Amino acid sequence: MKKEKYTVTGMTCAACSAAVERAVGQLPGVNSVNVNLLANNMVVEYDEGVLGPASIMAAVSHAGYAASPSTAKQTPAQTAQSSSIDTEIAHMKQRVIISLSFMVVLMYVAMGHMVGLPVPSFLLGSENAGIMALVQLLLTVPVVYVNRQYFRNGFKTLWRRSPNMDALIAIGSGAAVAYGVFALFRIVYGLGHGDLDLVARYSHDLYFESASMILALITLGKFLEARSKGRTSDAIAKLMDLAPKTATVIRNGAEMEISVTELVVGDIIVIRPGQSIPVDGVIVEGSSAIDESALTGESIPVSKTVGDQVISATLNKAGSFKFQATRIGEDTTLAQIIRLVEEAGASKAPIAKLADRISAVFVPVVIGIALVAFAVWLILGYPFEFALTTAVAVLVISCPCALGLATPVAIMVGTGQGALHGILIKSAEALETAHSLDTVVLDKTGTITQGQPAVTDVIPKSDLAPQELLRIAASLERPSEHPLAEAIVAKAEEEALELVEVQDFLAVPGRGIRAQLEGTTYLAGNLAFMRENRIDLGEFAAKADELAEQGKTPMYFADTERVLGVIAAADPVKPTSQQAISELQALGLEVIMLTGDNRRTAEAIRRQLQLRSVLSEVLPEDKEREIRRLQEQGKAVAMVGDGINDAPALARADVGIAIGAGTDVALESADIVLVKNDLRDVVTAIKLSKATLRNIKQNLFWAFFYNSLGIPLAAGLFYPLLGWRLSPMYAAAAMSLSSIFVVTNALRLRKFAPHK
Hints:
By secondary structure, the protein is of the alpha+beta class. The protein has a 7-stranded mixed sheet with strand order 14-26-25-24-15-22-23, sandwiched between helices. A 6-stranded antiparallel sheet has the order 6-5-7-13-8-11, with no helix packed on it. Strands 16-21-20-19-18-17 form a 6-stranded antiparallel sheet. It is elongated and about 120 Å long. The longest helix has 35 residues, at 680-714. It starts with a strand and ends in a 9-residue tail after the last helix. Helix content is 51%, strand content 18%.
């Protein structure tokens, strides 16, 4: 089996991607096909002994679109789509401005005199009806021209028997324009033959403003949606920026700075405090504390010494060391994460719009009804004009203005309300998908917890005050660069303790520190350091074990003879995390904590938050794999995280939710961003999604209700018995009323408020 990627052009909605998938999926030898509407690409897995690229591209072409093989061997930067997206948005913005400008003038000309607005005299009266009609046509032509792709795509999909939203737009606006042109000819005919009754009748049957309104409003909605297209390429660019561009290597006995691209396996690389690690490798000299939180999620920097592995894009906090490169280029951990983000982003298809799915049936039915009505009235001996106006009335009342607005207007209001509550929803697909979630996966560090270690316990020996132990500890730790030391010093500063300078400060890598304070030698460090210095820990060993069971990191403090006490630090749980998790569970969602932390810490957090499930010591690729495993079980999964290590999982999830204080990469990879850094906003986002989807369904119901109620009347079903007949003018009015109703109903979402 061969897997190949193609670029597909011409797709505008979910019905388009479904048509392409259907066309290619029916080919012999195709094992799977996945079309990504947002990325405009398609991945096909096929038997190259049975099928070739030419046949695949021909199938796409037959469906009404165009496909070409994506260029292989490109870097993420080369495959970035940002420039084309920006060009598309700029083009759509131009279309919106032109469409709305001409539509406003047209509405004024056509309806201004009805509401008492001043209109030039040469446009008023039966004698000027021809000029009025011609002016309206001239104002409509630019709107039709700038939006001609609706007609091109719509009629093409109709010809291919796979109608989409463009087909609805083309039929509705095209019918209005066609009938308007017909009315224009009838007006001119009436003026030329002195038939003022004919002129008066058709002066009210100009529907150019309806066509302009359909095209302008639909284009506005599509423009607003285009601005929120996926930004996977930006996420990849930021991932690539994590690793340094240069590295200091030892060659021929001398240090030299070279480009990372020039590194080879086996190079000895020098790393100093504050530098990022360029590639994966093994330490051969020296030791340090490495901040791996960006890639592993571990909140506490990890002590590294000779023989330990280091990972690309992690940060050296303290100490200098040398390591030997073992994995470079595309083999590094960072490169693998980048690849996962690309693959996850490409595999996530957008949710098909309800209107697109319904239009596949609705459009042919409406066209059929219009044709049947036209034919029946001709057969029954009625005039051609009667049959034509009846058919046009059917098409006009079923035109897709309300249908097209039902989803985007509700999405616009819903995303606006989300922004008011600090929830940035980056795509309509995310807002639509969030309502169907049944599983929420939470990263621990920086999402459930604060993301920075803080002192949780100060336990001195019986004859020592807690503040005195903290003063001694902070004075000892102040010269250290270890994050736990920073937490102790911060706690002392918070309590306004007066610290003193130390002498003979000595840091023992992976163990602790030794220093003199006010003439006394003190020790600070872990259990191994205390045992090496033969310090009797007494009851403090059990207390330290108890603290460790709670997910905290204990640190012993002693003089040369006895232990003075234990200070514990941990990454504390955010005050709102417990409430947020409880509310998510109350909504019937399964909540899972996913973390790179050790098993003991993760289990302590699980007990504290009353979680049913937790996965600890999970590597970045395992996080993405776990999301995929849940999806393969048929679950709709949301991933909530803030770190670079969460980016692949955020991209893979049905909805990726990033905490606002997280990294830029996490924010770019996510579909929803919580600006206020409050986990309770996950609950709000899901409730907002449910409210928006409920509103969309109401809008679609009312859009079809008006059409379904009006179509039999427009078709003349009641005319023989009751004399009831719906003219195109009243059909247009009914269509406009349905649009107004849809917009008004969507505005009710502005009353949405989270209940905390």
